[in-house]
Design a protein that fits this description.
With 398 residues, the protein is an alpha+beta fold. It has one domain (4-396): 4-Layer Sandwich (Anthranilate synthase), CATH 3.60.120. Helices cover 29% and strands 34% of the residues. The chain has a 20-stranded antiparallel β-sheet that branches.
């Protein structure tokens, strides 16, 4: 079997791992980058040199250029949630407090396609300590009340509220990702080391996947814990599948994404598949629907990002007003969290996740945000407990 153990003795620890399991996903190890383009505070750097240009136009031009000289993957990288500040200049967002690129893409030097990444048990010891949160339960409840004020007055119909947890990592970031991936087998996992920061995404959510002229997105909204035994597991799945509250919350996001796709798809081609479907993961059950359509001719990567980003499932609806309220009630910058990580092929096909269940590491300090969608009939205690469920994957190393 072709796995990382084949290549690590020769190339060392990879700088990136695409760990996309399921739905025709790619699994690959990447060592080194020939070129890197990044955006910080609206300014473009190509291989650390400042470029005076339009960030979006230059990113597309650069990806087009990289695509001419590769047959495998043109670029890998991420778009952080805070890139919204550039995409929506009409909204007066707070400046990001994080020294993290708004987007970062690299042209891989060495690419090795793998049969599997997470089937071999990791041997390195990993542990966390000093768990902390920047928000107390009382402050979380207060923020829910603020959201409900906006819901009551019809400003929005749903808001995705998040907050970060912090840990001290004892061990190496790549070993942490290896251990968690081995336990969880993420549907759309990603590891990326850009030097100062390492990003570890154990995401179950697919954001954008294109193949030829078809584009699909997979909104994930509605959650239940896995269950401590088979009877409880089946009951939780049944409870989620029959929950009118979860279905209503889910349908809001499905409709939002149908509208987003309508900006870049041929008229009459947008459809849905498996509405309110249930997907089961290692510690959790989620409600997931596929929304898809046929792309208009000559639609490129930046056209898609401008139409779709940030993802509706991690903002709320209507999207722009939801982002304004999130900016008001959240006291931290999300950074890469709820942004998107993925890759671009030379033919223009892309596959990107929603960067949830995602850690940012700097000097072995781990930030791991959690959150969920808030609607009018949300119960504050239940929402608080849902965030704890979403942190349960960390119990594998705590």
């Amino acid at each position: 079997m072709n796995n990382l153990n084949t290549y690590i003795p020769k190339y060392g620890v990879p700088d990136a791992v695409i760990d996309f399991n399921g739905n025709d996903g790619l699994i690959a190890g990447i060592w080194g980058f020939e070129n890197v383009i990044e955006c910080k505070n609206g300014k473009i750097l190509l291989n650390k040199k400042n470029i005076s240009c339009n960030p979006l136009e230059f990113l597309q031009m650069t990806i087009n250029d990289w695509s001419k000289s590769t047959n495998e993957i043109s670029a890998i990288g991420f778009i952080g949630y805070d890139f919204k500040n550039i995409l929506f200049p009409n909204i007066n967002f707070k400046n990001s407090t994080k020294d993290i690129p708004d987007f970062w893409f690299g042209k891989p030097s060495i690419i090795k396609i793998l049969d599997s990444f997470s089937h071999i048990e990791p041997l390195e010891s990993i542990s966390f300590s000093n768990c902390s949160s920047i928000i107390s339960k009382k402050k979380y409840f207060d923020s829910i009340n603020k959201i409900k004020y906006h819901l009551e007055y019809g400003d929005v119909y749903q808001i995705n509220k998040t907050y970060p947890l912090k840990y001290k990592l004892k061990g190496k970031p790549f070993d942490l990702y290896h251990q968690l991936s081995w336990k969880i087998k993420p549907r759309r996992g990603f590891y990326l080391n850009i030097g100062k920061n390492q990003f570890l995404s154990l995401s179950p959510e697919e954001f954008i996947k294109t193949k030829d002229n078809k584009i699909s997105t997979y909104p994930m909204k509605g959650t239940r814990p896995e269950g401590s035994n088979e009877l409880e597991r089946l009951q939780n799945i049944k409870d989620l599948s029959k929950s009118e509250k979860d279905k209503a919350e889910h349908l809001m996001i499905v409709d939002l994404l149908r509208n987003d796709l309508g900006k870049i798809c041929e008229f009459g081609t947008i459809n849905i598949n498996n509405l309110y479907g249930i997907q089961t993961y290692e510690t959790i059950h989620h409600m997931v629907t596929e929304v898809y359509g046929k792309l208009k001719q000559n639609t490129n990567f930046i056209d898609i990002i401008k139409a779709m980003f940030p993802g509706g499932s991690i903002t709320g609806t209507p999207k722009e007003k939801a982002m304004e309220i999130i900016d008001e009630i959240e006291s931290y910058s999300r950074g890469i969290y709820t942004g998107s990580m993925g890759y671009i092929k030379p033919n223009g096909d892309i596959d990107f996740n929603i960067a949830i269940r995602t850690m940012t590491i700097e000097n072995n300090i781990v930030e791991y945000p959690v959150g969920g969608g808030i609607v009018w009939d949300s119960n504050s205690e239940e929402e608080w407990q849902e965030t704890k469920i979403k942190a349960k994957i960390l119990e594998f190393v705590l």
